[in-house]
Automatic annotation (TrEMBL):
The organism of origin for this protein: Babjeviella inositovora NRRL Y-12698
GO biological processes: positive regulation of mitochondrial translation; protein insertion into mitochondrial inner membrane from matrix
Pfam families for this protein: MBA1 (PF07961)
GO cellular component: mitochondrial inner membrane
Any GO MF annotation of the entry: mitochondrial ribosome binding
Name of the featured protein: Uncharacterized protein
Superkingdom, natural source: Eukaryota
Length: 262
């Protein structure tokens, strides 16, 4: 009975329905083997506004808005509970999930993508990023064709942290893939060389929220895009308009695929 109730609750959630529509809209690329098996996970981006807990510095003042502060605080715990619920459902339906391996792959991709962008060599990440992410990286680097970059990850200020886990079902309702949002709090060094200009050296802290799509049948992990922190007013599971045109959904994915946007 618990399993039945869990599946009902999950399928009725706005986020689950949104993910289902994404899978259904791209189902034309699928075969009888299932969309994830034919590489659909490499073709989609971030199709939902996953909740990313805001930093405490962005919380409303406890003294001027105590109720708002408390609600924002409890959303952090509510998001953790939702992640555990989603993970338990995925594990029950798909079997063993090697989250440690997924984490290592996410870290490796994070570093590879920055290195590839700096060196202007994207062949090394062909199988590590979604198609629209690579297109965005190539286009952005093309605008900097005369600029030489050297990027170094100095250190992780904190261990990379999973902040959101979201199953994505196919048209049948069965989970075909899932997306994970990781927080990377790092210190990075960047050397910029431009024609007829002095070389610039910068070292700064950076916090990034990268979204990775995982094919649970092959354990492949690809970078699908990035997100910013949610505002204190955002809902853990935002309402999704079922009538949103496919073009708008795709445009939103493309926007989130530009991982270096401000």
């Amino acid at each position: 009975m618990l399993v039945s109730v869990s599946r009902t609750l999950t399928r009725q959630s706005p986020l689950f329905r949104a993910a289902g529509r994404i899978g259904a809209r791209f189902a034309s690329d699928a075969t009888d083997e299932g969309p994830a098996r034919v590489g659909l996970y490499k073709k989609i981006g971030v199709g939902a506004k996953y909740y990313v807990p805001p930093s405490f510095s962005k919380y409303p003042s406890f003294f001027s808005s105590p109720v708002f502060f408390i609600k924002t605080y409890f959303k952090r715990w509510g998001n953790s509970g939702l992640n555990w619920f989603n993970f338990a459902r995925a594990k029950r339906e798909l079997g063993h999930l090697d989250v440690v391996d997924f984490r290592h792959k996410a870290i490796d991709i994070y570093m590879r993508v920055h290195t590839a962008f700096a060196s202007n060599n994207f062949a090394s990440i062909d199988d590590k990023v979604a198609t629209m992410v690579k297109d965005s990286l190539v286009a952005r680097r093309k605008d900097m064709a005369q600029v030489k970059l050297d990027w170094t990850l100095v250190k992780f200020n904190q261990p990379p942290k999973l902040v959101s886990f979201n199953p994505i079902p196919g048209p049948s309702g069965a989970i075909e893939m899932f997306q994970m949002v990781y927080k990377f709090d790092t210190n990075q060094r960047l050397i910029i060389g431009e024609p007829k200009k002095e070389i610039k050296r910068t070292e700064k802290d950076s916090v990034d929220y990268f979204v990775f799509t995982v094919d649970p049948f092959s354990d492949d992990v690809v970078l699908a895009g990035s997100l910013f922190e949610s505002s204190p007013a955002d809902k853990i599971m935002p309402e999704v308009d079922p009538t949103t045109p496919r073009d708008k959904v795709y445009a939103d994915m493309v926007a989130k695929a530009d991982i270096f946007r401000l």
